[in-house]
Design brief:
By secondary structure, the protein is mainly alpha-helical. It folds into two domains: 37 residues, no CATH class; 151 residues, no CATH class. Helices cover 60% and strands 3% of the residues. The protein contains ten helices and two strands. The protein has a two-stranded antiparallel sheet with strand order 1-2. α3 runs parallel beside α10 and α5 runs antiparallel to α6. It is elongated and about 75 Å long.
């Protein structure tokens, strides 16, 4: 559990008394390595932490964000020859549960940031799956890109991750494109859960 006090001195006093109560009265052992007197925003609890503001807000702990990104990287790995439909289905399943838990966080900007990063990961995968310059040119033309621009970008030697953030893919593989492919909006899900 977390106990919040007004000062470090008060925190140290309560830590001593609570530890004594737990170990002597309840006969339980306190894990000294995981226990500390510290600023709220430097600690995490059940995946959450606080912002460093005059009026603190609940935020997602850094370790939880690292786990989220690690899972997303697994699902959107370029080295896995998985169809896009399967990837999107796995993303939807994972993100629905993840958002259901972390919707308690008061940081909507982070959910927008995660969603943008996920779409960039998907653009990177899509670009790789198009494989050859010929296919890329054809696909870009099919998405309404003028012939000269489709040829220029389709033959680009830029790395996958860089291309995924290019204006051409931002415009063609935009939010509506991924929505039509079945990807559910993480931010919209967050907004919905916050209102209910």
């Amino acid at each position: 559990c977390n106990i919040y006090m007004k000062s470090k001195k008060a925190g140290e006093r309560v830590m001593t008394s609570i530890t004594s109560f737990i170990e002597k009265k309840l006969k339980l052992k306190v894990n000294r390595e995981k226990s500390a007197v510290d600023r709220p925003w430097k600690r995490k609890f059940l995946g959450f932490s606080f912002t460093n503001h005059k009026k603190p807000k609940v935020r997602i702990a850094n370790e939880s964000i690292k786990r989220l990104k690690s899972r997303i990287r697994q699902i959107t790995s370029r080295s896995k020859p998985s169809p896009m439909e399967v990837r999107i289905e796995k993303l939807n399943q994972y993100l629905t549960g993840w958002c259901g838990y972390f919707a308690l966080a008061d940081t909507p900007s982070k959910f927008k940031e995660f969603e943008e990063w996920i779409r960039r990961r998907l653009r990177m995968v899509e670009w790789k799956q198009w494989k050859t310059p010929k296919t890329r040119v054809r696909k870009l033309k099919g998405l309404g890109v003028p012939d000269n621009m489709a040829y220029e970008w389709g033959n680009s030697r830029k790395k996958y991750w860089r291309i995924a953030c290019s204006p051409i893919l931002h415009k063609t593989l935009d939010n509506s494109y991924w929505s039509s492919r079945g990807l559910k909006s993480l931010y919209q899900r967050y907004e919905f859960l916050r209102q209910t």
